[in-house]
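Anyone up for a design puzzle?
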């Protein structure tokens, strides 16, 4: 692709680094920004810079947050006896959009994948175990829902976590298989995802 300006070329190259955006889409976005008032691009730039510099990750569940503890973990309206374990942050947003779940979350930051060199130590599994074992009697965690991808890596991670949770005496369930094999929660429609949470089944590592 030939560009009339090195500045346009640099902008297109940077924008196209974003997931799902090719060079043509990046060019349209760059040209669109040029047509906007300077205050619009300045506001966009400031928002992105502020996001990168000031965003935090919840010390409890590892979700994105404006403070050390996210609004879900600190809410008194949530059922603190249930923790839904997910792979990544977009999965939390997807489940929240179903309005079918009122418990807490735990973001692993990935799934076990030996091919990619990702083992249990690279994930937030130990913090999940500590979190459950240290939960107060009045808010003792009674159930862990495994809402992980329906893939070999997701199943391997679910199996590993279930074996670790056995000695803690916590009920382990998994979302119903309304989610297609190989499917990601982030892209599953809200009705299907909501029903999968409500019709979750017990998970066994035996």
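Challenge accepted. My sequence:
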């Amino acid at each position: 692709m030939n560009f009339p300006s090195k500045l346009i070329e640099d902008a297109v190259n940077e924008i196209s680094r974003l997931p799902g955006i090719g060079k043509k889409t990046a060019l349209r976005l760059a040209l669109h920004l040029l047509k906007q008032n300077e205050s619009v691009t300045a506001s966009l730039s400031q928002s992105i810079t502020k996001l990168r510099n000031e965003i935090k990750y919840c010390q409890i569940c590892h979700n994105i947050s404006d403070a050390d503890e996210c609004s879900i973990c600190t809410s008194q309206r949530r059922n603190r006896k249930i923790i839904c374990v997910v792979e990544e942050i977009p999965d939390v947003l997807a489940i929240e959009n179903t309005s079918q779940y009122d418990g807490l979350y735990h973001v692993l930051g990935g799934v076990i994948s030996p091919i990619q060199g990702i083992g249990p130590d690279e994930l937030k599994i130990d913090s999940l175990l500590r979190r459950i074992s240290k939960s107060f009697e009045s808010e003792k965690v009674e159930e862990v829902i495994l809402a992980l991808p329906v893939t070999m890596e997701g199943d391997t991670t679910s199996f590993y976590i279930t074996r670790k949770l056995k000695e803690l005496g916590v009920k382990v369930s998994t979302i119903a298989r309304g989610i297609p094999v190989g499917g990601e929660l982030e892209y599953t429609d809200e009705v299907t995802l909501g029903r999968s949470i409500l019709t979750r089944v017990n998970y066994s590592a035996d």
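A detail worth pointing out: DSSP finds eight helices and seven strands in the chain.
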